[in-house]
Design goal:
The complex is a heterodimer of chains A (122) and B (318). Chain A has 122 residues and is α/β, with parallel strands linked by helices. Chain A contains 5 helices and 5 strands. Chain B is elongated, with a radius of gyration of 27 Å. The chains are: A alpha/beta (122), B alpha+beta (318).
Chain lengths: 122, 318
C-alpha cells in the first residue's frame, strides 16, 4: 500500500482528501503544520507528499526547501496543493523541486487522485 | 468618443465626484486650472514687461507665477497618486479576499466530491440536491477566479510566462470538457480546422482562459438546440480563432460596451441571469497583452461570431 503524507492545516480539506484517497487504496498520514509535516516525512518516508503552502509554524516553501536538502527525503515527489496562484509562487515552488503545482479550487478529488496515480507510476 | 462623452469629460465637478476626490486633489480639475493659469501668466507677463522695463521686476513676477504652478502641480501629482493607490488597494483587496474565499469553497467542493461518489448511500437519496449544491459552488469558484483574473490584469501581474503548447490539442481538451453541458442543451460543438498539430510558444493559462470564456458564452446564450462552430486557422505569423453560435445575439446598442468590465447585455440578462460580466473583459485583456486583436459580429436573434488573432512563434515538438 502506497503511503501519502498530506501537510495541510484546514481540517475540512484534510478530511475530504484523506478519506477519498483511502478509498482509492492509499495509506494517508496527515500533518497539521509545517514542522510536524517535515518530521513525519523523515519518519515515515512516504511515497508522495501533498503540500499546502500557507501553513502554521513553517510555511510550505521552507518545508519543500528542507525536504529537498535532506538526503532521506529529497527523492520523494511533492505536489504543491494550494489556492495561491501568483506566477512567481508557481515558479518558485517548481524551482525548489516540486513535481507539480495544483490550484485546489480548480481540481476535483478525482482529478487529484488521477494526478497522484500518474506521478507514482512514473 | 461621442459628443456626450466629450462633454462629460469636460465636466470636472462630475469627474471629481465620480472618483470621490476633493477639488484640490482632483487631476480633472487641477489640469485645466494649471492650463488656465499658464495662459493668464503669459499674457500678464507680456503686459507687465511692457509697463515695467526693469528686468528684475519681470523676473520676480515670473518666479512668483512659477512657484504657484509648482504648488498646483504638486497637488496634481498627489491626486494622481491617491487614485493610483486606491486602484492598487482595490486590486490587492480583491486578490486577498479571493484567496480567502477559495479555501472554504474548496472544502465544500471536495466534501461534495466525497459524498457524491457512487459508493456513498447519501448520493442515492439526495443525488439531485447534491448536484445543485455542487453547481452553485462551482459558480462561486468561477466568480472568484474571474475576480482574481481582473485583479491580476489590473495589478499588471501577468499570467504564467510563455511555454510550448500544442494549441489544437489544448482546444480539443477544452471542447471535450464542455461536451456534456452542450449535449444536455442539444447543442453540437464542431471544430473545423486544417491544423493537425501546432506547437506554439504562448501563455498556456491565458489562452485557456480565453478559450473557456468564449466557448462558455457561446453555449450559455443559445436558448435550446443549436450549434457552435469553432474554426482554428494557421495564418503563418498569426493564429486565428473563430467561434460562431446561433444564439440570442447582441443588440446593436450594446456592441460598444461588450468588452467592458461587469457589462451584461439587456437581452442576455433576460435569458440567462448567471454570469459575472467579466469573461470578455478578461479575454480582451489577455489578447491585448499578447499583442493580438479580438472582435465580434452579431445580429440579435440570429447569433454571434467572436474571433481573435494572436501573433505566434511556431516551435518544433522536441
Amino acid at each position: 500500500m502506497k503511503k501519502i503524507l498530506f501537510i495541510e492545516d484546514e481540517s475540512t480539506i484534510q478530511k475530504a482528501i484523506s478519506r477519498y484517497l483511502e478509498q482509492e487504496g492509499y495509506k494517508v498520514k496527515n500533518a497539521l503544520d509545517g514542522e510536524i509535516g517535515l518530521k513525519s516525512a523523515k519518519e515515515i518516508k512516504p511515497d508522495l507528499i501533498l503540500l499546502d503552502l500557507i501553513l502554521p509554524k513553517k510555511d510550505g516553501f521552507d518545508v519543500l526547501r528542507e525536504l529537498k536538502k535532506d538526503e532521506s527525503t529529497k527523492n520523494i515527489p511533492v505536489i504543491a496543493l494550494t489556492n495561491l496562484e501568483e506566477s512567481d509562487n508557481i515558479e518558485k515552488v517548481l524551482a525548489l523541486g516540486a513535481t507539480a503545482y495544483l490550484i485546489k479550487a480548480n481540481y476535483s478529488l478525482e482529478e487529484i487522485a488521477k494526478k497522484i496515480k500518474q506521478i507514482l507510476n512514473q | 468618443m461621442s459628443t456626450k462623452k466629450k462633454y462629460e469629460s469636460l465636466n470636472f465637478l462630475k469627474q471629481c465626484k465620480k472618483n470621490h476626490l476633493e477639488l484640490w486633489q482632483c487631476p480633472a480639475f487641477l489640469f485645466p486650472l494649471t492650463g488656465l493659469l499658464i495662459i493668464i501668466a503669459m499674457i500678464s507677463t507680456y503686459f507687465i514687461a511692457i509697463k515695467y522695463t526693469q528686468p528684475e521686476i519681470v523676473a520676480l513676477i515670473v518666479i512668483g507665477i512659477t512657484t504657484i504652478l509648482f504648488i498646483i502641480n504638486h497637488f496634481i501629482i498627489q491626486g494622481v497618486e491617491t487614485l493610483a493607490e486606491a486602484n492598487k488597494m482595490k486590486s490587492e483587496f480583491i486578490g486577498i479576499v479571493s484567496h480567502q474565499l477559495r479555501t472554504p469553497l474548496t472544502g465544500i467542493k471536495w466534501t461534495l466530491n466525497l459524498i457524491m461518489r457512487k459508493e456513498e448511500k447519501i448520493n442515492d437519496c439526495y443525488g439531485q440536491e447534491l448536484k445543485e449544491i455542487n453547481d452553485n459552488n462551482e459558480r462561486m469558484i468561477k466568480l472568484v477566479n474571474d475576480l482574481l483574473g481582473v485583479s491580476k490584469i489590473e495589478q499588471k501581474n501577468p499570467y504564467i510566462k510563455s511555454e510550448k503548447i500544442d494549441v489544437k490539442k489544448l482546444l480539443e481538451k477544452i471542447i471535450k470538457e464542455y461536451n456534456p453541458i452542450a449535449k444536455a442543451k442539444n447543442i453540437e460543438i464542431k471544430l473545423d480546422t486544417k491544423i493537425d498539430c501546432l506547437f506554439i510558444e504562448f501563455d498556456k493559462e491565458g489562452i485557456s482562459i480565453v478559450f473557456h470564456n468564449l466557448i462558455d458564452n457561446a453555449i450559455k446564450y443559445i436558448k435550446n438546440k443549436g450549434h457552435v462552430k469553432i474554426r482554428l486557422i494557421n495564418k503563418n505569423k498569426f493564429l486565428r480563432f473563430e467561434i460562431e453560435d446561433n444564439g440570442v445575439g447582441i443588440p446593436k446598442k450594446d456592441h460598444e460596451n461588450i468588452f467592458k468590465k461587469f457589462f451584461r447585455s439587456v437581452n442576455i440578462m433576460k435569458h440567462e441571469t448567471v454570469g459575472t460580466g467579466l469573461g470578455l473583459f478578461i479575454a480582451k485583456s489577455i489578447i491585448n497583452k499578447s499583442k493580438g486583436k479580438i472582435g465580434f459580429h452579431s445580429k440579435e436573434n440570429k447569433g454571434t461570431t467572436f474571433w481573435f488573432e494572436i501573433p505566434i512563434k511556431i516551435t518544433k515538438n522536441i
